[in-house]
Amino acid sequence: MRPSTFLALVASISAASAASLQGFNYGSTKSDGSFQVQSDYEALFSTAKAVSSGFSSARLYTMIQGGSSTNEPTSAIPAAIAQDTTLLLGLWASGGEAGMQAEITALQSAITQYGTKFTDLVVGISVGSEDLYRISPTGIAAKSGYGANPDDLVNYIKQVRAAIANTPLSKATIGHVDTWTAWANSSNSAVVEACDWVGMDAYPYFQNSMANSIGSGAGLFNDALSATQAAAGGKDVWVTETGWPVSGSTQNLAVPSTQNAKAYWDAVGCPNFGKINMYWFTLQDAAPVTPNPSFGIVGSTLSDNTLFDISCKDVTVLPSSTAPTASGTSAAATGSSSTPTSSGTTFSANSNPNSPPSDSLSNTSPTSAPLSSPSSSLSSSSDSGSGSGSPSGSSGSSSGSPTGSPTGSGPTGSSSSFYGVPSSPANSSTIGSSTGGAKGNGSSTTSAASAAVSTGAAASMLLSGPAAGVLVAAAAVVAVL
């Protein structure tokens, strides 16, 4: 091989290794709480690459297939193998010790069942999603479901590292995903130290206690990213959820519309795609029903015909004084017209598993005060750091144990239904609906109590989508698990 050829090859490899990840969040359930199966994931992954060749990665919220009572690995794995889609794996961490063991069992089973066809596609592993947010005063006030405290998350991360040692995933990087306000709270620093990277969920739309018009969206996002990077202490920060709704209720100055969703894409996505790892919320959340708010860039019909131009060509960032506001409800080009009711409660956060990130992102600046834990009573206590939940918000409305699982993590107020993973402790006897918090109350149910720990109740998140709460701008969007 001639030197020039060798150098060109090295340069090509270096460029490829330096390329940043681009993808969408995928929950384990659909917007009506029914579970995604392999064919659903394959269609989504194929469409993601069709709308833009760069979106070839998928973020998941749980390792367990929705509806499984035996901790069967998610069918997103064979779908990813078939579509050559890389995976940011997620293990739901708000189901207690038993729930984490179920997630780890499913991960180990996947390694054994699919081998390197699976492990070669793994770009990272996230242990938990917005668990710290959910135990914060803001998350508790938003009824976002069970979470996990810093010590538990550190323990879970250690368990996952031990579980993948001496396997093809032994070198996989491990992180945790949470709202930027959770990361900015110094009482959570032990989690940062335990991670190889940190994942940030941020939704200016939900920062309704601030000036959060579309013209301020990029600025609020950049502030959230800067705060997270400062807290990360030099570790890589991945943007794991962000987006702007195409339809839904207005949050202070934030108006959902396809025009504003495009403006946010252009101002936040386009400058960062290819530079930092970024998972958008979301590809589709309006099938079979449209949540409020709805963040999908395609409508009710899955196709490469997006609701707005995502090419990033001739992009002009709007000055804050001339941000488009549109009147609220957008009619999806694909026919997914979802006009919220006058009260703004259509598909309320607590009722829709696919709902976007929780709107619990309050604008109060996070403090170093320790966050309250789920067991510390859902008492008042002033919110020190109010974080932002994911769009899907907590799923389930019913009295069943909250499924703060992957199905419900949406922008703020993660919704378990989107994730399809139970957020309640494993010893909970109720599997059905999760009591969701901020935006996504999808009430998905599982076939058995063990399923609840591993798959069940958390239909609230669909793995991506903003939750309904509305306090802090950087809420994280949850995707269907």
UniProtKB/TrEMBL annotation:
Residues 320-451 are annotated as: Disordered. Coiled coil: none annotated. Residues 1-18 form the signal peptide. It is found in: Cell membrane; Secreted, Cell wall. Its EC number is 3.2.1.39. It is an enzyme of class 3 (hydrolase). Residues 320-425, 441-451 have a biased composition (Low complexity). GO terms for biological process: cell wall organization; polysaccharide catabolic process. One of its GO terms (molecular function) is glucan endo-1,3-beta-D-glucosidase activity. InterPro entries: Beta-glucan_modifiers, GH, Glyco_hydro_17. It is a lipid-anchor; GPI-anchor. GO terms for cellular component: cell surface; extracellular region; fungal-type cell wall; plasma membrane; side of membrane. It comes from the Eukaryota. Keywords: Carbohydrate metabolism, Cell membrane, Cell wall, Cell wall biogenesis/degradation, Glycoprotein, GPI-anchor, Hydrolase, Lipoprotein, Membrane, Polysaccharide degradation, Secreted, Signal. It catalyses: Hydrolysis of (1->3)-beta-D-glucosidic linkages in (1->3)-beta-D-glucans. Glucanases play a role in cell expansion during growth, in cell-cell fusion during mating, and in spore release during sporulation. This enzyme may be involved in beta-glucan degradation and also function biosynthetically as a transglycosylase. Belongs to the glycosyl hydrolase 17 family. This is Probable glucan endo-1,3-beta-glucosidase eglC. It comes from Oidiodendron maius (strain Zn).
